[in-house]
Amino acid sequence: MIVKVTIDGQDIYLEEQPNGTWEKLATAPTYGGVYPITITLLADNGSVTVIGSDDPELGKLLQLIVQGKSIAGQRMLEYLPRFLQDVREIQTILESEGHEIDRLRDNIQLVINDAYIMSASETRIQQWEQRLKITSVGNLNQRKAFLLATLRGQGKLNESKIKTVVNAFTDGDAIVTFQNSVLDIKILPPDNGDVYLFPDVERALRPRVPAHLGLSVRRWYSTWNDIKLNFADWSIVASYGTWQNVKNYIPPQ
Q1: Sequence-ordered list of residues with C-beta below 8 angstroms from that of 180, at least 6 positions apart, any chain
Q2: pLDDT(253) > 70
Q3: What is the greatest pairwise CA distance in the chain?
Q4: Confidence at 140, pLDDT banded by 50, 70, 90
Q5: For residue 195, what pLDDT is reported?
Q6: What are the distances in angstroms from CA 170 to CA 22, 58, 84, 195?
């Protein structure tokens, strides 16, 4: 498993200790303030879990408090003439005001983040789900992808709209065909290789398909786990000739 902690834009990869904990010595941000922490867990099976400061249960704990100089306070101090910058009373006043400005800046950034689904907080995502009557499934990132797909899918359902919905989950493309009153959707490999909640694609499309039509959503590519489950040993993999042939193998649907 890989454990990554992100603080102030810096990625820190933790190291597993003999006692089962994960640790890493790192340098704190230069300026004082409250810094949100994001933890990314990459499991051995390829699943990804992201826990941030907006998590309803752990969010309050995922904050780094740095006791130090305020960014805004230092900036305001630099605007003063040099002979005033060394006055202790002025330094104290600007430092106190600076921390308030820093907190205001952080709150403004939270409001901006909430304006966009992919950067929105847990609370904002819950509001979207309640408004659209969507049941929460998966982690926060997967729920955001489902919301994005739902909003992209508004309007008349056609091939372009279906591909747009699929792209919201995979950043990739799909093959869409219609035959014998069944809408057949083959999802091609994700462009970025990210793990996504595959059943959510059908869950997002199902309410949009007319009741008299069937819907078939299939994953038209293999993962390493598919190869592991469907090939007895490496000799069978080698019998496919090239890696491209192995890549083109479609697992049982």
Answers
A1: none
A2: no
A3: 84
A4: confident
A5: 66
A6: 31, 28, 57, 8
Nearest to 68 by CA among 27, 107, 30: 30
- With beta carbons less than 8 A apart as the criterion, state whether 198 and 184 touch: no
- Mean residue pLDDT across the chain: 82
Report residue 6 CA to chain centroid gap. 13
Do residues 180 and 90 lie in contact, with contact meaning Cβ atoms separated by under 8 Å?
Answer: no
Angle formed at CA 125 by CA 111 and CA 133, multiple of 5 degrees: 135
Q: Where are the alpha helices (DSSP H) in 2-115?
A: 71-79, 82-85, 88-114
Strand partners, 60: none
What's the chain's length in residues? 253
Hey, how many other C-beta atoms are within 10 angstroms of the C-beta on 166? 28
Angle at 212 between CA 162 and CA 147, to 5 degrees: 35
pLDDT tens, position by position, 101-113: 887 887 888 889 8
- The token duo for 61 is 């704990």
Q: Which of 61-65, 165-169, 179-183, 249-253 has the lowest mean pLDDT?
A: 249-253
pTM for the structure as a whole:
0.52
Cβ pair 214, 181 in contact under 8 A: yes
Give Rg (Cα) of the chain.
Answer: 25
76: nearest Cα among 100, 108, 42, 41: 100
Distances (CA, A) of 251 to 52, 164, 188: 35, 24, 13
Instruction: Give the closest residue to 77 by CA, choosing from 97, 53, 60.
Output: 97
